[in-house]
Design brief:
Elements: H1 11-19, H2 27-37, E1 42-45, H3 52-66, E2 76-81, H4 85-98, E3 106-109, H5 115-121, E4 126-131, H6 133-142, E5 152-155, H7 158-163, H8 167-175, E6 182-187, H9 192-201, E7 206-209, E8 220-226, H10 232-239, E9 248-251, H11 255-267, E10 273-275, H12 281-293, E11 298-301, H13 303-306, E12 316-319, H14 326-333, E13 343-349, H15 354-364, H16 394-397, H17 423-430, H18 433-438, E14 441-442, E15 448-449, H19 474-487, H20 491-502
Helix pairs in contact: 2-3, 3-4, 6-8, 14-15, 19-20
Length: 508
């Protein structure tokens, strides 16, 4: 069995790893670290929980321990790009942990924070620059950050950055770095765009594809609960009463849906906080610290914001809305069953999400057990607030089958069997006295309808309203037009005559 010492890491790095209780590398660490120490480009396909963060951080610390180079002003020796603020902060913590014997200089450049302190941190140059692509590119355009001193570029969660639309910015960032650089790219999946990015900016990269030695999905007790969309809030509030749920993450599809769910749970006496892209950086840090410290037990999150949540004692994950991409489901439930612990993943599925559930089961190769509950059709739901700001968001487009756009359920039309006569038809044929006495008429579905209104001329139908003319000479002109038509003259002549009548006399 390979150890970190056998990989040839520097002594200060080994001491830090030993202090954290790490002696044996994970499969991706054992394969990637030797290639990185040889200054090779690496293309790693690895999911969350494989230890990939240490895989690309440890070789950079080893190089720093052997040959410390002062980076140029406004630049960095190692550039790490991540999709979210939380993941950037988590990577910075890992660098400080594994490099505590070296005390490397680190700058975190992310959105949602004041740019002034970030610019001052980069003034003298740093060893590690951890950044989100958008904010980094903004600083590059203002000249506050330069990338001419970068020796290694690391792209973590590249597929997630692609989903966020960062690929154009990433290409511009990579083009601004020296060509004689080391490029490390890690992604959970390998779509065509990521493969093309690797081909354009990597040289003879070593490709490594690994899965966790003990896949988290195998240690998670999964279940699915079929429930109408209107009853999801009530079902979740009921499940959260279980004392076995010590710490839970609830995933929603949209940012607005996360806030709305928190308000619903609050009305049931359950404290929950949301984390998503619309929250400020200080709010997100405060919420995560409360969740990590045990002051908050229920965290409602979107998929993007959940990146970087590295907490070992999450007992339950709830998929309040099923993800539209099956791989995202695996990422979500990977928040539990960490560090060898067991975990529970509960998925809510309404009628419109059946196809998403089938796609998840096809990807995982697991038939998720169905869990019965008391919040099926007809159960009492939590009060749903009417919020016009919700509009036609992703969580409002998916409605239950059989519902109209206004939310009212259509009544199925009763079809008449061939060769027979329906009860409603018989009632119409016989004209029962009760129907005559009430003045009502039986409809096709057997219900009583009010009698039809009649026009003044006695014909059926409501009286027609008077026409209001918006153009021309008003009602008078309309009347003249009608007279002209009756006389065989063009209607325009009558309207022109009316205009001449209203024309003011010329001033002498």
């Amino acid at each position: 069995m390979t150890t970190f010492k056998e990989l040839g890491l520097a002594e200060p790095v080994l001491k830090a790893l030993s202090g954290e209780g790490y002696d044996t590398p994970t499969p991706i660490q054992a394969q990637a670290i030797p290639a990185m120490l040889e200054n090779r480009d690496v293309l790693g396909i690895a999911q969350t929980g494989t230890g990939k963060t240490a895989a690309f951080v440890l070789p950079q610390l080893d190089r720093l321990a052997r040959m410390r180079i002062q980076p140029p002003a406004k630049s960095a020796t190692v550039l790490l790009l991540t999709p979210t603020r939380e993941l950037a902060a988590q990577i910075a913590v890992s660098i400080r942990t594994y490099g505590r014997m070296l005390k490397p200089s680190i700058a975190v450049i992310i959105g949602g924070a004041r740019p002034g302190p970030q610019v001052r941190t980069m003034a003298k140059g740093v060893d590690f620059l951890v950044a989100t692509p958008g904010r980094l590119y903004d600083h590059m355009q203002t000249g506050a950050i330069r990338l001419d001193g970068v020796a290694t570029v690391i792209l973590d969660e590249a597929d997630q950055m692609m989903d966020l639309g960062f690929l154009p910015a990433i290409r511009k960032i990579l083009a601004a770095t020296p060509q004689a650089r080391q490029t490390l790219l890690f992604s959970a999946t390998m779509p065509k765009q990521i493969r093309s990015l690797a081909n354009d900016f990597q040289r003879e990269a070593v490709e490594i594809s690994v899965t966790p030695a003990s896949r988290p999905i195998e240690r998670i007790e999964q279940s699915v609960m079929f429930v109408e969309k209107a009853n999801k809030g009530a079902l979740l509030a009921s499940l959260l009463q279980d004392p076995a749920i010590e710490r839970a993450v609830v995933f929603t599809r949209t940012k607005h849906g996360a806030d709305k769910l928190c308000r619903q749970l609050a009305r049931s006496g359950i404290e929950a906080s949301a984390i998503h892209g619309n929250k400020s950086q200080s709010q997100r840090v405060k919420t995560l610290d409360a969740f990590r410290g045990g002051d908050l037990s229920i965290l409602v999150a979107t998929d993007i914001a959940a990146r970087g949540i590295d907490i070992d004692d999450v007992t339950h994950v709830f998929n309040y809305d099923l993800p539209e991409v099956p791989e995202v489901y695996v990422h979500r439930i990977g928040r539990t069953a960490r560090a060898g612990r067991a975990g529970h993943a509960v998925a809510f599925c309404d009628t419109s999400e059946r196809s998403l559930l089938r796609a998840i089961e096809k990807l995982t190769g697991i038939r998720i057990p169905v869990r019965e509950h008391d919040f099926s059709a007809g159960a009492e739901a939590l009060p749903v607030e009417a919020d016009p700001a919700e509009g036609r968001s992703a969580d409002s487009r998916s409605g239950d089958a059989g519902e109209t756009r206004r939310g009212k359920r259509r009544k199925p039309r009763q079809r008449q069997a061939s060769g027979g006569t329906s009860t409603a038809t018989q009632a119409l044929a016989t004209k029962t006295p009760s129907a005559k006495a009430s003045g009502a008429k039986a409809s096709e579905d057997g219900e009583q309808r009010r009698p039809q209104k009649r026009r003044p001329d006695g014909k059926p139908g409501a009286a027609r309203p008077k026409k209001r003319w918006r153009h021309g000479g008003g009602n008078e002109a309309a009347g003249e037009s009608g007279k002209a038509a009756a006389a065989g003259r063009p209607a325009g002549q009558a309207q022109n005559r009316n205009r001449r009548r209203r024309r003011k006399p010329a001033v002498a």
